[in-house]
Design brief:
By secondary structure, the protein is α/β, with parallel strands linked by helices. Helix content is about 45%, strand content about 15%. An eight-stranded parallel β-barrel has the order 1-2-3-4-5-7-10-11, surrounded by four helices. A three-stranded mixed sheet has the order 6-8-9. A two-stranded antiparallel ribbon has the order 12-13. The protein is globular, with a radius of gyration of 22 Å. The protein binds beta-D-glucopyranose (BGC).
């Protein structure tokens, strides 16, 4: 009898543990993400100004495989269909971005484009009417071209321009938008101040990227303080920044590779996260030391990575309410010097040996972030699979099974404080320089039809079930 009770309670305990692992916690937000340039189209309609993306893909068509965001998914006109799609997958949050030049065509306050403000008001109202929370990215890489003529992000004046733009957003939308992201993936967009290939293609390797980093950290902090001091009391929302990082696991179990893994993380995420989320603030010591040393060895009178004053360190530290995280796959890294001189890659002293989409890498990374920057909730703002298309996307379903399982284990077993997940992406769209050929969507978009017809893929059905039940069924845990 006793053994039966023991056996029974063991079964019950496992059952409970399983239920606890498979379910998203109460209040966990589930949804999908997009970005303005990739879906809106209407690139010059109703007073919108030119962005660096418009400028780039119009002037260097081959670098964009001859496809542009001029029309994209035409979400500017079809946003109600998009919201219906979100509803159909049982999303409770939609991450989209606002196009700065649609609101401020010159980047400055001399022209405020009411039609642009109306568009975002309509979208936000449609979302709320359908019970979907807006999560708004202020900057997903579409700087007004007028500001690029002034040098763009390496120019510290961008801080003032960005703060004024953010103020317009808080004023117009902050009564209804409670989740704000200042920047999407700084590591990626500053890299185009270091190389040719995507807008604005400024070939200033190891310099333009660090100068841009310095500017945007100040801009981010100013916007958070603006919200904190002038809007939080009445609007009651949260402001964060979205950082991208791959798994960056050591290629072998040598001490050298373990150090390389940490260095890689500090150079990719720490350079943004340490100033904002660490207890000490400022750039990570390893980044500071290596860039300073290389700059000196190159015979430069100053470091290529600018320094913050003590006041700036204190002002930036703590300037966020949550960590936005974009994660797709894991790179395996080893120690060694590669890349042109000067470059961030060379400064980091890390060589990437291969890349894989491994769910355990996601769980391991979430644990690293939680221990490196304790006390901050994490919002997974992008995660998804690229393939070459088709509605029968079982590869994408497999990817979700792995990554949502890893996420649930991180949350329910490891107690990593993740509060939301928006998959990349709602529908196939303009994948930057890969054009419309690379497919990440839950919905297929027929780019050859004048209607840009949207059709759900099998993955949309799978996600609808998971989001609707708020659970990844036990059979999917391996
Ligand atoms: C970006 C998206 C992009 C996605 C897939 C992220 O780097 O934020 O704009 O489409 O990854 O490549």
């Amino acid at each position: 009898m006793l053994s039966l009770v023991v056996a029974l309670s063991a079964v019950l305990a496992t059952g409970l543990a399983q239920t606890a692992t498979t379910r998203f916690p109460d209040g966990f937000m589930l949804g999908a993400a997009t970005a303005a340039y990739q879906i809106e189209g209407a690139w010059n309609e109703d007073g919108k100004g030119e962005s660096i993306q418009d400028h780039f893909y119009h002037n260097y068509p081959l670098l964009g495989l001859n496809s542009t965001g001029d029309v994209a998914c035409d979400s500017y006109h079809k946003y109600k269909e998009d919201v219906q799609m979100l509803k159909d997958i049982n999303a409770d949050v939609y991450r989209f971005s606002i196009s700065w030049p649609r609101v401020l065509p010159t980047g400055d306050l001399d022209v405020i484009n009411q039609a642009g403000i109306d568009y975002y008001n309509n979208l936000i109202n449609e979302l709320l009417a359908n019970g979907i929370q807006p999560l708004v990215t202020m900057y997903h890489w579409d700087l007004p071209q007028a500001l690029q003529y002034l040098g763009g992000w390496p120019n510290e004046l961008m801080v003032d321009y960005f703060v004024e733009y953010a103020r317009i957003l808080f004023e117009n939308f902050g009564d209804r938008v409670k989740w704000w992201i200042t920047f999407n993936e700084p590591a990626v967009f500053v890299s185009w101040y270091a190389a040719i290939g995507m807008a604005p293609s400024q070939n200033a390797s190891g310099i333009g990227d660090y100068l841009s980093t310095h500017t945007l950290l100040k801009a981010h902090a100013r916007v958070w303080h603006l919200y904190d001091e002038q809007y939080r009391a009445t609007q009651n929302g949260s402001v964060g920044i979205t950082l991208n990082i791959e798994g960056l696991e050591p290629a072998t179990n040598s001490t050298e590779d373990a150090e390389a893994s940490d260095r890689a993380r500090q150079f990719q995420m720490g350079i943004y996260a340490h100033p904002i989320y660490s207890a000490e603030g400022d750039y990570p010591a390893v980044v500071r030391e290596r860039v300073d040393a290389n700059s000196a060895a190159e015979g430069r009178p100053r470091s290529r990575l600018p320094s913050f004053t003590r006041e700036e360190v204190d002002y930036i530290r703590g300037s966020a309410d949550f960590i936005g995280l974009n994660h797709y796959s894991t790179d395996f890294v080893t120690s060694g010097v590669t890349g042109i001189s000067p470059s961030k890659t060379r400064d980091s002293g890390v060589i990437t040996s291969y890349n894989e989409a491994v769910p355990w890498g996601f769980r391991s990374l979430l644990n690293w972030i939680a221990s490196e920057y304790p006390g901050y909730p994490i919002f997974v703002t992008e995660n998804g699979l690229r393939n070459s298309g088709g509605r029968n996307d079982t590869d994408r379903i497999d990817y979700y099974i792995g990554f949502l399982g890893a996420l649930l284990e991180a949350v329910n077993v490891d107690r990593v404080p993740v509060i939301g997940y928006t998959t990349w992406t709602l529908m196939d769209n303009v994948e930057w320089s890969l054009g419309t050929r690379a497919k990440f969507g839950l919905y297929e978009v027929d780019f050859s039809s004048p209607n840009l017809t949207r059709t759900p893929k099998e993955s949309a059905g799978f996600i609808a079930e998971v989001y609707g039940s708020r659970e990844l069924p036990q059979q999917y845990f391996r």
